[in-house]
Structure formats: structure tokens, C-alpha cells
Amino acid sequence: MKTRLTHLFAAMLVLSPAVAIAQSKAMEDMPMETVPATQTVHVAKGKVTKVDMTAGVVTLAHDPIQSLNWPAMTMGFKVKDKRLLDKLVIGKIVIVELVHVDKTYVITNVK
Fold first, then answer.
1. Which residues, in sequence order, are bridge partners of residue 75?
2. What is the gyration radius of the CA atoms in the chain, in angstroms?
3. Phi first, then psi: what are they for 46, rounded to 5°?
4. Are 72 and 30 members of one domain?
5. Which of 1, 71, 82, 111 is the most exposed place for a label (fewest CB within 10 A)?
6. Start-to-end CA span in the chain (Å)
7. CATH number of the domain where residue 54 is located
8. Strands, E assignment, 14-92
9. Both 46 and 77 in a single domain?
10. What angle do CA 69, 72, 78 make, to 5 degrees?
11. Do 46 and 99 fall within a single domain?
């Protein structure tokens, strides 16, 4: 019995790397459209004109956002995390990072 367990354990040690290699090969052959793409982060500079703490929305008068081909305008953005609202004080000039979420752009970071 002890010999059988030793052989079984040895076989498991030998086969473990083979299974890992087979799994990584399977990933290489996977079509790229099934692997989620990373989100594009857009950066905007603007002045905070309004903060709605309850809704988690901030209104920015922002400069043009080149990566989105947007002109300068004033618009509201939701924040991903309401704790970011502490950094968004009316009258303050901020740099924010935006990502596309559910047909809108959401602030994910404030500098």
C-alpha cells in the first residue's frame, strides 16, 4: 500500500507541469474576442461647478478631451466611488480620469 501511494504521488508530481502547460497552450489558441479588453482611461482637466453628494454626480466645466474628440463644455459625471466626492470641491480645478461604463463616462480617479 505504501509503495502504491508513493507511485501515485510521484505520478502527480510528474503530471502537474504537463497539465499547466496544456492549459496555457489552450489560452494561446483562444480567439482574442473572448478575452476581455482593458478599458480606455480618458483624462480631463476642469473646474468643479456643482456637487450632488446624494446622487454621486459632479458637474465639471472641462477643457477639451482629445482622446474623446470632445470640445470644452460643462457636464455632469457620476463618480465610481462616492469617496471621490471629498476631492471635488466647488471652484477647485481638478484632473479626473474617466472610463466608459453603461453608455456614460464615470470618474474613477481625481488628482
1. 60
2. 25
3. -165, 170
4. no
5. 1
6. 65
7. 2.40.50.320
8. 42-52, 57-62, 73-79
9. yes
10. 85
11. yes
Which amino acid appears at position 5 of this protein? L
Contact criterion met (CB below 8 Å) for 8 and 15: no
Give the pTM. 0.66
* 50 and 29 within one domain: no
DSSP, res 30: S
Q: Pick out the chain residues at pLDDT < 70.
A: 1-37
Stated length of the chain:
111
Tell me: do 104 and 52 sit in the same domain: yes
DSSP 35: S
* Tally of domains in the chain: 2
Q: Are 99 and 40 in contact (CB under 8 A)?
A: yes
**What's the domain range around 51?**
42-110
C-alpha cell at position 102: 453603461
